[in-house]
Amino acid sequence: MLLVTLQKALTLVAMPYMFGTSMERLSRTAQRTKTKLMDAALALFKERGFDSVTIDEITQTAGVAKGTFYTYFGTKSDIIVDAFWEIDAYYETYSSKNLSRYKTARDKLLAFTRAQMKYVRDVVGNNSLKILYANQAAQPGSNKMITNRERKWHSIVRDVILEGQAAGEFRTDLDANRLSQLFNRSARGVFLDWCVQDAAFDLVKEGVAVMRDFVMAALENTPRQ
To answer: What is the CA radius of gyration of the chain?
Structure first.
């Protein structure tokens, strides 16, 4: 699940922290301290569950003072948010290795959606996604990680839509950035529904169906009144 995968990834990927100082701008000592806190937290979450772990236990396990936690994180759930950046590394790897095999932009978007939904279902998991969405909804302002258009998710979808527009597959009355934003909002709607319904439906099957049977019709280059 997410906590296992991301715990291994933390030593390899310097992931930005949306509420504080990014990892690349921290000193080496600060980077090590933040990584220790994240390693300790993710190990405890895996062992006992997110809700059962306290900040005191995280800092004790990491061997740092409790106040140090708040230098890097505002809340316990911010750790999940910080770790979640690893999903964009997966998106980039998947798209660079796999999308070129598909001939049409439509097929590329559906393949990407299938891979995305499978990763969230099998690696992230329903519980971690609930924590992430609750964290993001509680934060003030509109500059949120899950909606950030600088993310690799947005650029991958935008570039495929641009390809589809150039080939005459997709509508051109809206630019690719706007269409990408709408496409990704539809995907987030599926994710949110999956959280609200406590994983009552198969995320991969339903996510692909929503995109194939509904969203693609809105993207297609057909005459509009």
So the answer is: 19
Q: Which two tokens stand for residue 21?
A: 């100082």
Same domain, residue pair 14 and 113: no
Question: Would you call 28 exposed, middle or buried from its count of C-beta atoms within 10 A (0-12, 13-18, 19+)?
Answer: exposed
Q: Does residue 154 register a pLDDT over 70?
A: yes
In a domain, 224, yes or no: no
Tell me how crowded residue 153 is: count the other CB atoms within 10 A of its CB.
21
Average pLDDT over residues 157-168: 98
CATH number at residue 160: 1.10.357.10
User: At 4, is the secondary structure helix, strand, or coil?
Assistant: helix
Give the domain extent around 130.
85-219
Token digits of residue 205: 């099957």
Instruction: Examine the pLDDT at 23 and tell me if it is beyond 60.
Output: no
Percentage above 90 pLDDT, the chain: 59
- For 218, the token pair is 């809105």
How high is the pLDDT of residue 8?
41
**Cα angle 200-205-210, degrees, rounded to a multiple of 5:** 100
Query: What gap in Å lies between CA 40 and CA 53, rounded to an integer?
Result: 11
Residue type, 49: G
Q: What is the pLDDT of residues 64-82, one digit of tens each?
A: 999 999 999 998 988 887 8
